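Hi V.,

You were right to ask for the full record rather than a summary. Here it is.
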Amino acid sequence: MISGFLIANRRVALTAACATLTGFAAMLAGPVLAQDAPKVKFSTSAGDFVVEVYPDKAPKTVENFLQYVKDKHYDGTVFHRVIDNFMVQGGGYDAKYAEKKTRPPVVHEGREALAKGGAKNVVGTLAMARTNDPNSASAQFFINVKDNAFLDPTVIPPGDPVPKFEYQGRIYENTPRANLVNAPQLFGYTVFGKVVSGMDVVNKMKSTPTGAGGPFPSDVPKTPILINSATLVK
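Predicted structure:
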């Protein structure tokens, strides 16, 4: 089974080939899209930060996230997993580490988002947390505090079988498409937004001392970081 998080060279080549045609239009469109993106303000015990989300890149993921915001699901939850030089994760547990009930999970949109020019898992981006099942994301999210390329979804090159696919320096030729499309390790994590203000707060959060807490043996902030409210501001 092929595993890992590497975007195939063929896809990169195709993207580079069309960059000349689309680059100028993207520069013009980018600020407009960012200006129109919905924004959510998180007021936490560590300070406030604002994220913007991209329904044009990951529509079902964004709709799911914003519905949790509107339902006040995040109010009173904590950042229960904080790893310096990696990410901060929250949205699933209250201050007593009781897991909150969620709606059914949302379909994974990582590859589709990348194909539409969406962001990768770089510093400041917002992505959905999940289990080993790619389609298990519900309410929990994380903010990358480092460029985490190994979390990026892999866009599968065209063809069936796929003529050429590279992973960790090894070339796979004439691989049945289904073997790649359905490999859980190649799905990555769906990025659907980014922090647009208050990144200093997130950086303060990432360096907080951690240890055991509730049902978790490690990575729990010793001083709880509480989300007092998450509010749609646009």
